[in-house]
What does this fold into?
Amino acid sequence: MLSLGLRPHCRGFKYIFDLANLYACGEEILPLKFVGYQTLLKKYGKSLSNIDKNIQNCISKAWLDGDVDMLYAEFGNTIDSDKGKPTAKQLIMHICNKISSL
It folds into this structure.
């Protein structure tokens, strides 16, 4: 996660980490807003919009501060052309797939 430019001091980092950890433990997290985020709601007592916003902010910060060449090499043409960065689902599933391949 750090190599993608995600920073632990961002609130969304722990949410992304928890989702990836749930996936690695064999738990279902998709669809994110109805399954994965609901698990985080119960754990942290935050609203759905708060969790989503913090994850989006963490991704945005990675794209502003991270190594853009490496990020484009990792995600290629899967990046949303309107936003210029991956969606939360794309990023989280990319991390989950990397963990699964270890």
User: Anything to note?
Assistant: The chain has a mean pLDDT of 90. The CA atoms of residues 78 and 86 lie 7 Å apart. The radius of gyration is 13 Å.
